[in-house]
Amino acid sequence: MEEKFLNFVLVFSGLFVMGIYHVWLLFTILCNPRRTVIGFNAECRQAWVFSIMSDPMKNGVLAVQTIRNNIMASTLLATVAITLCSLISVVVSTNTTVMSSSAVSKSVYSSETTISSVKYFSILLCFLVAFLCNVQSIRYFAHTSFMVTAPALKDKKESIEYVARNLNRGSFFWSLGLRAYYVSFPLFLWIFGPIHMFVCCCTMSSILYFLDTTHCFTQQLQKFIGDMYANDAESVHRSLGNAGLEDFHLCSPLLTGEGDNQV
Predict the structure, then answer these.
(1) What whole-number distance in Å separates Cα of residue 206 and Cα of residue 203?
(2) How much is the mean pLDDT over the chain?
(3) Residue 154 — φ and ψ, nearest 5°?
(4) What is the pLDDT of residue 63?
(5) I need a surface site. Which of 46, 203, 205, 258 has the fewest CB within 10 A?
């Protein structure tokens, strides 16, 4: 009864802490993107796309190599995730067979099997989410690699914004896949006990807060990017013709097409 009580209280408390943190992070990204690294990186990527597509014939090789590196990173994470899913499935099937053969009673077997199955299934679910998110990331990066080097799109503001949205969506899915890896750490420690999981959830939330929010260095970098973007505005204005940059806005990383939030 004591172990069941700890599992019920500490596991749900740890998940509640991580859930509250990610709800706060999502709200901050939507309302104040520049306070988070995710929103700041989305702004930098969009400025990068605008700079690359101002002269795609000159910057095409750099763009393709940069996007290829992102595709390779997503491919590696997706491969690791699906491999771990296969290993966890083998471990679960083996443990189930051993427990069924060595169980003292049916009730003990059912209780232990249920708890163990929930633990392994939650870990398996994290890696499945990581795999799917990284596959989607590869998809968006592949589309972007074709469009970012198209010379016919360099004078079309709407086309440049569309390419930037696809790049940000690919990076957003990559962040979700990596976040699934982070969530799997407390679930791994749940195998050793609910106390380990609760401590890991609190520690992981603190570490993620430090990684997800902007600090002195990122604020200085943000100022530098803004100055550089302002200096390049005149040249990009000439490349876009009468459209200019006054109608161009940097979008939130949670891009859904029309009605994007302005950063």
Answers:
(1) 5
(2) 78
(3) -70, -25
(4) 86
(5) 258
Residue 214 contacts residue 38 (beta carbons within 8 Å):
no
CA R_g for the chain: 23
- The phi, psi pair for 119, rounded to 5°, reads -60, -50
Give pTM, 2 decimals.
0.75
User: With contact defined as beta carbons under 8 Å apart, do 173 and 134 qualify?
Assistant: yes
Q: Are 170 and 137 in contact (CB under 8 A)?
A: yes
Q: What is the amino acid identity at position 162?
A: Y
Of 14, 256, 15, 54, the C-alpha closest to 155 is 54
- Count of CB atoms situated within 10 Å of the CB of 207: 12
φ, ψ (nearest 5 deg) of residue 262: -90, 135
Non-local (6+) Cβ contacts of 254 within 8 A are: 29, 30, 172, 261
Domain layout of the chain by residue ranges: 2-240
pLDDT tens by residue, 44-101? 888 888 888 887 778 878 888 999 999 999 999 999 999 999 888 888 777 666 655 5
**What would the 3-class secondary structure string for the chain be?**
CHHHHHHHHHHHHHHHHHHHHHHHHHHHHHHCHHHEHHHHHHHHHHHHHHHHHCCHHHHHHHHHHHHHHHHHHHHHHHHHHHHHHHHHHHHHHHHHHHHHHHCCCHHHHHHHHHHHHHHHHHHHHHHHHHHHHHHHHHHHHHHHHHHCCCHHHCCCHHHHHHHHHHHHHHHHHHHHHHHHHHHHHHHHHHCCCHHHHHHHHHHHHHHHHHHHECCHHHHHHHHHHHHHHHHCHHHHHHHHCCCCCCCCCCECCCCCCCCCCEC
Enter the tokens of residue 155. Answer: 């004078």
Q: In the numeric block, which tokens belong to residue 124? A: 């398996």
